[in-house]
Design a protein that fits this description.
Rossmann fold; 3 domains; about 30% helix; four-stranded parallel beta sheet; binds N-carbamoyl-L-aspartate
C-alpha cells in the first residue's frame, strides 16, 4: 500500500510522472471521468480548510468517485477523545482512500499504523503539506516552464508554514535551484529544513527585507503568518504585518517573476496585486485540484505494491520533546525515533549516531 505523508515519499521521476499525468487530465478531463467509479475518498479534516478539502472532494467527484468525511474535529469523535489511530481504523472500513489534516505534527504517521487503505497527508500542524507542493510544482512548471535553475524567494512565516517545508524538500531535488528565505528572525525555517538544504548542497540565504530581495527572484512564494500555531497572542500581533506585498513592491520585481501563495491570504498580499499578470495564486488553486486527481489515480493504482523500505525506527525509552507532536497526546502510540541522521561534511555523508529524530514530527531531540 502506498501513502503520501511527505513529499519525499515520491521520487523525482514520480513527481515528473504526476505532472505529465496532470497535464493529460487537464486536456482530456472526460477520459478520466469514470476512473474512480465505485470508489470512495474520505476527507478527515480535524483542522479548518477551504481549498484542500474541497479540491480533494472535487477531484474525486470529477474522477467519478464519491466522498465522505468531516470538516472539523468538533463534528468527529475526536471531540469525545478518540485517537487518530482508532478514527482511521474505523474509516478504513468505509472508504478506499483517506485524505487527512490534523493540527498535530506527525498525525498521519500515527494514522498509517492502523489504516488498511492509502493515506494522504493534507497538512499536519506546522510540519508538512505535500499535496500543496504538488499544486506549487505544477504552477512553477506551467508558469515558468521548468522546475530547475530557479531562484525562489519564500517569504513570511517560514517556521510554521508547512507548505514551505514541503516545497523546499521537493525543489532541492531539482538541479540549480536557489533559495532566498525571507522572514522575521522569530519565524525562520526550522533546523530540519536547513539540514535538508545543506545535505542537498542547495544554495540558500536567509534574509529579512523583501524589498531588497524581490528584484532578483524568478518566483516569490508568500505565506500567511500562522496565527493558530503561536503560543503567545502578543507575539502574533507583533509579527502579523511583517510583510505586505503591494503594487509598490511589485514595481521592484522582475517582469517575469511570478507570485505564489498557498492561500488563504490575510493581508500579506494587497488585493490590488491580484490584477497583476504575475499573480498566480488563483491559478495554483486550479492546478491543485488537477494534481490531486493525478495523485488519487496513482495511489489507487498502486495499492497492491509493497511499501517502500524506510529508515529503521527504534524506541529510546523517552518521549518526543515537541509539545506539538502527535506522540504527546495519542494513546497507545509508541514513541519512535530515527537513531541516525546523515549529514554531509565537505561533500561526504557522515553518520552522527548520537542524534535522534522523532519518527512522527521529525524534530531533533536535544
Ligand atoms: C495552507 C495550509 O493549510 O497550510 N493552505 C492550504 O492548504 N492551501 C496555508 C495556510 O493555511 O496558510
Amino acid at each position: 500500500m502506498r501513502h503520501l505523508l511527505s513529499i519525499t515519499d515520491l521520487t523525482v521521476e514520480e513527481l515528473d510522472e504526476l505532472l505529465s499525468s496532470a497535464t493529460d487530465i487537464e486536456q482530456n478531463p472526460e477520459a478520466y471521468a469514470h476512473r474512480m467509479e465505485g470508489k470512495k475518498l474520505a476527507t478527515l479534516f480535524f483542522e479548518p480548510s477551504t481549498r484542500t478539502r474541497l479540491s480533494f472532494e472535487a477531484a474525486m467527484w470529477e474522477l467519478g468517485g464519491q466522498v465522505l468525511g468531516f470538516a472539523g474535529a468538533s463534528s468527529s469523535s475526536a471531540s469525545k477523545g478518540e485517537s487518530v489511530k482508532d478514527t482511521v481504523r474505523t474509516v478504513s472500513c468505509y472508504a478506499d482512500i483517506i485524505a487527512m489534516r490534523h493540527p498535530l505534527e506527525g498525525a498521519p504517521w500515527a494514522a498509517v499504523q492502523s489504516t488498511t487503505v492509502p493515506v494522504i497527508n493534507a497538512g499536519d500542524g506546522g510540519h508538512y503539506h505535500p499535496t500543496q507542493t504538488l499544486a506549487d510544482l505544477m504552477t512553477l512548471k506551467k508558469e515558468k516552464g521548468r522546475l530547475d535553475h530557479l531562484k525562489i524567494g519564500l517569504c513570511g512565516d517560514l517556521k510554521f508554514g508547512r507548505t514551505v517545508h514541503s516545497l523546499i524538500e521537493a525543489l532541492i531535488r531539482y538541479p540549480g535551484n536557489e533559495f532566498v528565505l525571507i522572514s522575521p528572525q522569530e519565524l525562520r525555517v526550522p533546523a530540519g529544513i536547513i539540514n535538508a538544504l545543506k545535505e542537498a548542497q542547495a544554495p540558500y540565504r536567509e534574509a529579512v527585507s523583501l524589498e531588497e530581495e524581490i528584484g532578483g527572484l524568478d518566483a516569490l512564494y508568500m505565506t500567511r503568518i500562522q496565527q493558530e500555531r503561536f503560543f503567545s497572542v502578543e507575539e502574533y500581533l507583533r509579527l502579523k504585518d511583517s510583510y505586505i506585498l503591494d503594487e509598490e513592491k511589485m514595481r521592484l520585481a522582475p517582469k517575469d517573476m511570478i507570485v505564489m501563495h498557498p492561500l488563504p491570504r490575510v493581508n500579506e498580499i494587497d488585493v490590488k496585486v491580484d490584477a497583476d499578470p504575475r499573480a498566480c495564486y488563483f491559478k495554483q488553486v486550479m492546478y491543485g485540484k488537477i494534481m490531486r486527481k493525478a495523485l488519487i489515480l496513482k495511489l489507487m493504482a498502486e495499492t497492491e505494491l509493497p511499501a517502500k523500505p524506510g529508515p529503521v525506527k527504534i524506541t529510546t525509552g523517552r518521549h518526543c520533546k515537541n509539545p506539538r507532536c502527535i506522540s504527546s497526546t495519542e494513546q497507545g502510540l509508541e514513541p519512535l525515533f530515527y537513531p541516525v541522521h546523515q549529514i554531509m561534511v565537505q561533500g561526504v555523508p557522515t553518520r552522527i549516531p548520537t542524534r535522534y529524530y522523532c519518527a512522527y514530527c521529525e524534530m531533533e531531540q536535544v
